[in-house]
Design goal:
The complex is a heterodimer of chains A (237) and B (322). By secondary structure, chain A is α/β, with parallel strands linked by helices. Chain A has helices spanning 24-31, 54-59, 77-84, 93-98, 101-120, 136-149, 166-183, 194-200, 218-223, 225-232, and strands at residues 13-17, 43-44, 47-48, 62-64, 154-158, 186-190, 203-208, 211-216. Chain A has two domains: 1-61 and 152-237, Rossmann fold (3-Layer(aba) Sandwich), CATH 3.40.50.300; 72-146, no CATH class. With 322 residues, chain B is an all-alpha fold. The chains are: A alpha/beta (237), B mainly alpha (322).
Chain lengths: 237, 322
């Protein structure tokens, strides 16, 4: 289905676009280990991560969001972020069951960290609310906060602006730029919203029917004939 | 501030209330005011609470529908009885053997079955529960279908009360921690949880083993209260009874499990002379609850200090301001 070859530099903000059904989300699922590739390799930070379990891949520093939001709906906003912090839990199971001082220190530390992530996304006032009760845009932001809390070096955003209004999209663009600079991470972005992709991405891959049909700077992509065809259909005659 | 953090006032109140309940009942038993009938039901109540709270960890918090809880109870009961009755060792050793054996059984059954989801897992655990019962039935060393008679009554009120509280505290401690949140994330969305770096299989097995371990403990207490155990006591109807308690109380609420266990035990006691009506009433109550309150009595809410999401109600504010 998918014949795909691409690379991402350290600290780069890469966009992945393409018409519906081009295989963009499939690429994300392959990278994060949800699907296993039939052939080929995925190399991350010089290590082969092909075929590893999703949780191992996350522990190696790749975090993602989902096209249709997948928060832990029935629990609090704070807990959503704290769950992402669990892989580096500062206390063990024995300390948990016995409630040693180390456990309380660890909890305070995790609580503080989680609230810092919420603050970045201006969600700190909603910490105790149930995740599914947040408005759509805030759920999107919470999902990014949760992904960031796993302390990734590569953040994969699957249509982060889907369902947002233009103002929210603009704010999101600023936020994405800021996150990349402040956290020093690479970002891979799938997006339908052209203004967002063209606005923030440094380099863009265009995918159609599982093939890369174009690669380059935003301006080059804008003028690329094949890309226009893929999006708008071929000229008649 | 520091002092308040480690011993909040509500904790002291809890301890005092529990100590009060314990002393009162102990006094009533010693003075003979509480007759045998009430004592039996009180013991059954404690055992049901342990069973419901431990099953709730698997079904309610981890979201894995298990129908084999009676099987683990049986493993614990038999392991303890073998130690105390056949090898005449102390009750403590019996209890340890029960926890160990049931936890091990949970591990052996959990690892292959927890790959399955939903209905398939339910059927698989149901099957395993029955397998355990059939195996016990066919071992002559432990009495075969007739079971074991003449088990000493070691399960006194202090043991029952103490271990019930112990179970609740350990499971509440687990749930209100990073590990508990990882377990709950499996219930909420397994894929997302896995992608957040959580080894979901490990946590499912962990919850399953701990749940099984406490079911074994309940089995040991049961065996040493009622003098006799036989495999048929631990059939799938017993698993179903526990499941009814958990569903009534609210999947994912320890408070709910405790309240429902108390309620169902009292109901069973009140209707002891009309066993036929008891089952009908069970069904009616279950239907009514499912129609009018499908999330169970408590939903996933908890009472008291340990509300999920804000671990120490009193502490929440200073924590936020740090």
């Amino acid at each position: 289905m998918l014949d795909f070859n691409f690379h991402l530099e350290d600290g780069e903000l890469l966009g992945l676009i393409g018409p519906n059904g081009a295989g963009k989300t499939t690429v994300f699922n392959l990278i994060t280990g949800v699907y296993k590739p039939d052939e080929g390799n995925i190399v991350f930070s010089g290590r082969d991560i092909t075929g590893l379990a999703p949780y191992t891949i996350c522990q190696k520093g790749i975090a993602r969001t989902f096209q249709n939001i997948r928060l832990f709906k029935d629990i609090s906003v704070l807990d959503n972020v704290r769950i992402a912090l669990h892989k580096d839990a500062p206390y063990g199971l024995l300390k948990t069951l016995l409630r040693t001082p180390g456990f309380f220190r660890g909890e305070i530390q995790m609580d503080k960290q989680a609230r810092e992530y919420l603050q970045i996304f201006s969600l700190e006032d909603k910490a105790d609310e149930i995740a599914s009760s947040l408005p759509y845009g805030e759920q999107r932001r919470l999902e990014i906060a949760r992904a960031l809390a796993t302390k990734p070096t590569l953040l994969i955003l699957d249509e982060p602006a889907a369902g947002m209004n233009p103002k929210e999209t603009r704010e999101l663009m600023d936020l994405i730029r800021w996150i990349r600079k402040d956290f020093g991470l690479s970002i891979l972005l799938i997006e339908h919203d052209m203004s967002l992709v063209m606005g923030v991405c440094e380099r863009i891959y265009v995918l159609d029917y599982g093939q890369v049909i174009a690669e380059g700077l935003p301006e080059e992509i804008r003028r690329n004939k094949r890309v226009i065809e893929a999006y708008l259909g071929e000229e008649v005659g | 501030m520091e002092k308040k953090r480690f011993v909040p006032r509500s904790f002291l109140i809890e301890v005092l209330v529990l100590a009060g309940i314990f002393t009162l009942v102990q006094y009533l038993i010693v003075s003979g005011l509480l007759n045998e009938y009430y004592q039996i039901n009180l013991s059954a109540m404690c055992i049901n609470i342990i069973l419901a709270v431990s099953l709730n960890l698997i079904n309610g918090f981890t979201g894995q529908l298990s129908l084999g809880h009676a099987g683990f109870m049986a493993v614990g009961a038999y392991a303890a009885v073998v130690v105390t009755t056949i090898y005449s060792q102390s009750f403590i050793l019996g209890l340890l053997a029960a926890c160990l054996a049931a936890g091990l059984a949970g591990l052996i059954i959990g690892v292959p079955t927890l790959r399955l989801k939903g209905d398939y897992l339910a059927i698989a655990t149901l099957g395993f529960g029955e397998i355990i019962r059939v195996i016990l039935q066919n071992i002559d060393f432990i009495g075969g279908p007739a079971g074991i008679l003449g088990i000493p009554r070691y399960s006194t009120w202090p043991w029952l009360f103490g271990l019930t509280i112990f179970t609740i505290v350990i499971i509440a401690n687990l749930i209100n921690s990073s590990y508990g949140r990882a377990i709950i994330s499996v219930r909420e969305d397994e894929v997302a949880s896995e992608l957040m770096g959580i080894n979901t299989t490990n946590y499912k097995v962990l919850a399953f083993v701990i749940g099984a371990l406490f079911a074994g403990l309940a089995g040991a207490l049961y065996a040493h209260y009622f003098y006799i155990i036989k495999p048929s006591t631990f059939n799938f109807l017993k698993s179903f009874d526990i499941l009814v308690i958990v569903v009534l109380g609210g999947l994912g609420s320890t408070t709910g499990a405790v309240i429902a266990a108390i309620f169902v035990t009292m109901l069973t006691a009140a209707l002891q002379t009309f066993p036929a009506i008891r089952m009908v009433l069970y069904a009616v109550i279950l239907v009514v609850v499912m129609v009018y309150r499908p999330q169970g009595l408590m939903g996933n809410k908890e009472w008291g200090r340990r509300t999920f999401g804000r671990i120490w109600g009193e502490k929440n504010e200073p924590l936020a301001n740090k």
